[in-house]
Design a protein that fits this description.
- There is one protein chain.
- With 465 residues, the protein is an alpha/beta fold.
- The chain folds into two domains: 26-48 and 316-459, Aspartate Aminotransferase, domain 1 (Alpha-Beta Complex); 63-313, Type I PLP-dependent aspartate aminotransferase-like (Major domain) (Aspartate Aminotransferase, domain 2, 3-Layer(aba) Sandwich).
- It has helices spanning 26-35, 63-70, 80-93, 104-115, 129-137, 165-175, 199-211, 223-233, 242-250, 277-290, 301-314, 317-336, 354-357, 367-379, 388-391, 418-433, and strands at 50-51, 97-101, 121-124, 141-144, 183-186, 216-219, 255-259, 270-274, 349-353, 381-382, 384-386, 406-410, 441-445, 456-459.
- Helix 4 packs across helix 10, helix 12 runs parallel beside helix 16 (418-433) and helix 14 (367-379) packs across helix 16 (418-433).
- Strand 3, helix 5 and strand 4 (141-144) form a beta-alpha-beta unit.
- It contains 16 helices and 14 strands.
- The mean pLDDT is 96.
- It has a five-stranded mixed β-sheet, with helices on both faces. A three-stranded antiparallel β-sheet has the order 9-12-11.
- The structure holds ligand F0G.
């Protein structure tokens, strides 16, 4: 008998603990959406059938993770769970100092409160919103330097998450190294479609930063997914294990921030990891104030155990193959049916280009918000708008249409199966067929910052609009 290469990429796990999902009628969903002020963030999760709001902290843990959690050490100081956590983080990243935090933004808070000052500039391929907010909170500027191919959602390119290295060089010349406390790179690039960054680009950014004496840091939330893209798309890495690709990438940096709610495969947790002794000491001092003692940093011992194990599971080849394939699978179905999406599909989500799909809704009436609400009404699916509701309000209170109006459908890790994805594709194609019935929206109530979380909206052109 000959061995064969199966075409089906199956879930590399079997399920032995299940959580029911609740089916609702369209009338029930309509009532839930009205009660939520037409804002899916304000829905009760039990009224959602397939929840793709985020891939952050929403994954399923493994039996091994749960076993580690049961055996955790909850000592306040020096718990063995911390040492297991520290060992895993060091083993994967190679950084000397491991500072646990309750999630990614806590690591950002500690880092930027320590290194960023008014007048500073911190370049990145594209800052995630919490990273930007923590930098701006210190009076510094968070500067995005995305590569040119990323500006066109339909254009395919293997590493659309790359940083524009010429722009980084020009920024360092213009601003001067003294006003740049760090250069960052976010892998994968969440703000731009979950797109990967090549090793060559990380290296180029690192060399430029280091040649100028500027620390180079990685926002590592989705480092394992990024490693898989390097393995499958960048010449010279085909035969390498994802963990070795990750190690090589981290070796180019002086530290990282991490939300373990993504590629830490955990429901909560994160860390700041650094090589610089003096900087690490200053960060630990602030950590004690805001997160807790440096051997738990806002996490329970069982959370530390879950991350210690999860980091390795995120790097498992069979898992990564299935993970990236399930996103690509949905993308292929949508592209084949002519639904515009950000191409190619990234590591954790499919992004639908709602402005292109819903040409009858002017950008001022939030087409991506409308599409997302339509997906919920029709199929009980919850994604998130990444468009003018999220980004349109300027700091002076004025309104500016965002560059793109996207709906992000982020996949929780190891949670949904292929039939869930088939159902999802069916719902999206049906919405596309009924798109003329989707209304524009207007905001009737909003907070001054990060308004998308709590805003209340109304459809335009209805009795209530
Ligand atoms: N950096 C990136 C690239 C992220 O995507 C996130 C979170 C963070 C930092 C902050 O981490 O949530 O643990 O504090 N992204 C989530 C999302 C919320 O839905 O994309 P956190």
């Amino acid at each position: 008998m000959r061995a064969f290469e199966p075409k089906s990429i199956i879930e590399p796990f079997r399920v032995r603990s299940v959580e029911p999902i609740r089916f609702t009628t369209m009338q029930e969903r309509e009532a839930a959406l009205v009660a939520a002020g037409y804002n899916p963030f304000l829905l009760r999760a039990e009224d959602v059938l397939i929840d793709l709001l985020t891939d952050s902290g929403t994954g399923a843990m493994s039996a091994r993770q749960w076993a580690g959690m049961m055996a955790s050490d909850e000592s306040y100081a020096g718990a063995s769970s911390f040492y297991r956590f520290e060992h895993s983080v060091r083993d994967v990243t190679g950084f000397r100092h491991v500072i646990p935090t309750h999630q990614g933004r806590a690591a950002e808070h500690i880092l930027f409160a320590t290194i960023a000052k008014p007048g500073h500039v911190i370049p990145n391929n594209a800052h995630f919103d919490t990273t930007r907010a923590h930098i701006e909170r210190q009076g510094a500027q968070a500067l995005d330097l995305p590569c040119e191919p990323s500006l066109d959602p339909q254009r395919t390119h293997p590493f659309k998450g790359d940083m524009d290295i010429d722009a980084l060089r020009a920024t360092i010349e213009r601003v001067g190294r003294a006003r740049i406390p760090a250069v960052m790179i976010t892998v994968t690039n969440n703000a731009r479609g979950g797109q990967p960054v090549s090793m060559a680009n990380v290296r180029a950014a690192s060399e430029l930063a280091r040649a100028n004496g500027i620390p180079f840091l990685i926002d590592a939330c989705r480092f394992a997914e990024n490693s898989w893209f390097i393995k499958t798309r960048e010449a010279g890495y085909e035969a390498m294990k994802p963990i070795d690709i990750a190690r090589r990438m981290f070796a180019l940096a002086d530290g990282c921030t991490m939300s373990a709610k993504k590629d830490g495969m955990s429901n909560i947790g994160g860390f700041l990891a650094l090589n610089d002794d003096e900087l690490a000491a200053r960060c630990r001092n602030l950590e004690i104030l805001t997160e807790g003692f440096p051997t738990y940093g806002g996490m329970a011992g069982y959370d530390l155990e879950a991350v210690a194990q999860g980091l390795y599971e995120a790097l498992d080849e069979a898992y990564l193959r299935y993970r990236i394939r399930s996103i690509e699978y949905l993308g292929e179905k949508l592209v084949a049916a002519g639904v515009p999406i950000v191409q190619p599909t990234g590591g954790h989500a499919v992004y639908i280009d709602a402005r292109s799909l819903l040409r009858h809704i002017p950008p001022e009436q939030y087409p991506a918000w409308s599409l997302n609400n339509g997906l919920y009404l029709l199929g009980g699916v919850r994604g998130v708008e990444v468009g003018s509701v999220m980004f349109g309000r300027q700091s002076d209170g004025s309104e500016k249409v965002a560059e793109l109006d996207l709906v992000r459908l982020a996949f929780p890790r190891r949670v949904y199966t292929q039939s869930h994805v088939d159902y999802l594709a069916e719902v999206i194609l049906e919405i596309a067929a009924q798109k003329a019935s989707l209304p524009g929206y207007r905001i009737v109530e909003q907070a001054p910052v990060l308004r998308h979380f709590t805003a209340r909206l109304q459809p335009v052109g209805t009795a209530r609009g």
